[in-house]
Amino acid sequence: MAFRVRRGVGFPAMSARLLALGLTLLGLSPVVVSEPTSAPEGPVYTSDGLQLPANYREWIYLSSGFDMSYRPGRQMDHHDFDNVFVNPAAYREFSRTGRWPDKTQFVLEVRTAEGKGSINTSGNFQGAGIMELEMHVKDEARFPGKWAFFSFGDRSVGTLLPTSAECYACHAAHAAVDTTFVQFYPTLLPIARSHGTLSPTYKAENPRG
Amino acid sequence: MAFRVRRGVGFPAMSARLLALGLTLLGLSPVVVSEPTSAPEGPVYTSDGLQLPANYREWIYLSSGFDMSYRPGRQMDHHDFDNVFVNPAAYREFSRTGRWPDKTQFVLEVRTAEGKGSINTSGNFQGAGIMELEMHVKDEARFPGKWAFFSFGDRSVGTLLPTSAECYACHAAHAAVDTTFVQFYPTLLPIARSHGTLSPTYKAENPRG
User: Fold this and answer.
1) Which residues of chain A from 172 to 201 reach within 8 Å of chain B, CB to CB?
2) Which domains does chain A have, with CATH numbers?
3) Which whole number is the average pLDDT over A55-79?
C-alpha cells in the first residue's frame, strides 16, 4: 500500500492537522465481531485519549462521500471514500427526536478507492486501506462545548483535538444539527426537518432546508 | 427529482431488466426505526414476492461503490452510489466462518449522488433519492440454486427474478464467495481468505486473491 494523504474532506479542516501528523495507511485488521449487546456504547476514554470502538463497523451507517472537499480547488492524485457510522442508541434517539443524546459517537472512516478490479470496469469501489479514522463525540459533562473531535493516527486511541482546531468552528458554523453534518446523511435530514431541529445557521445558508 | 436509470452496476446485469421496468426514483420515506431485537431477521415472503425489510438501514453496512459498472463503456449522465447491507445474524456467522448461513439477506440500495451542496465544493455525497433497491437472498429450501434475486420497483415488495436473468450466471461465475461479491466488501474479503472460502472461479480470475 502506498503512502497517501488527504486534503480537506470528511470532518472539514481536520486534514491540515492530519497532514501534519503524516498519516500512513493504518492497515487495521478486520474489526472484532461482537454480539449485539456485548459492548458498551458510551465513549471509553484512556489516559491519553479515546478508545476506538472495536465494533464500529457494526454501528449504524449514515452515508458515504466520494472525493468530498469543503475547500475549493482540491487537487487529488487518488480517489477516496469516507464512511460515517454512529452508535445505535444515538441513532434511535435521533430517529425519535431529531436530536443527538449525550454520549453520541460518530466514526468517520476514510478508505482508499479502487478502480479496475475483479469484474469492475469503471467507477470505484472501496479498498482495504483505511487512510484515516476520526471521531466526533458528545459528552456534555466532559467537554466545555459538549462535543469533541479525536484523531486516530495508526493507533486505536484517538487524540483529542484542541478547540482551536478548525473543525470546531466549521462544524459550529455550517452543520445542520447540533454541530453534525446531518445535511450529508440522507436518511436523517428529513427527520431533523420534521422535528424542527435544523440549526439557525444551516437554515440561513440553505433556505430550502 | 429527475427520472434516472442505471446501467450495469451493483448486482451485475440486473440493470437490463431494471431498465425494462422503467424504474423511477422510489422516493421512499425514512426507514422505520425499530429496537434491535424487535424485527425478525429471516426473509418475509408475500403472495407475490419478498417484503423489503423496513429496518435494512440498521443492518450491517458492507461497502459502497461510486459509478460502478461491470460492463465496459458505461455512459452516464449522472453519478450514483450503491450501498450494500446484510442482516446482522448473517454478518456474524460470516465473520466467524467465512460462509453465509441459510436465510442470509443482502440489500443493495442505489442512491443519487449530489455534487455541490451545503459546504461541499467537490466530490460527491449521497442524496435523498433512492434509484433502485434489489435483494439477494439465500433460502436453501425455497430456491433450487439456494440463492435468489429480487427487484423492487417503486414497491416495498420485490419481484423474484427468474434464474434465466443474467445476474445469476454472472454471480455464479465471478463472485468471490458463494455467489456474493465479497471482493467488493473490504472487511469481509480477508475473512474469506483466512477461512479458505474463496470460490475456485474467483481464485482463478484473481490469482493474487
Assistant:
1) 174, 176, 181, 183-184, 186-191
2) 15-28+45-162 (3.50.70.20)
3) 88
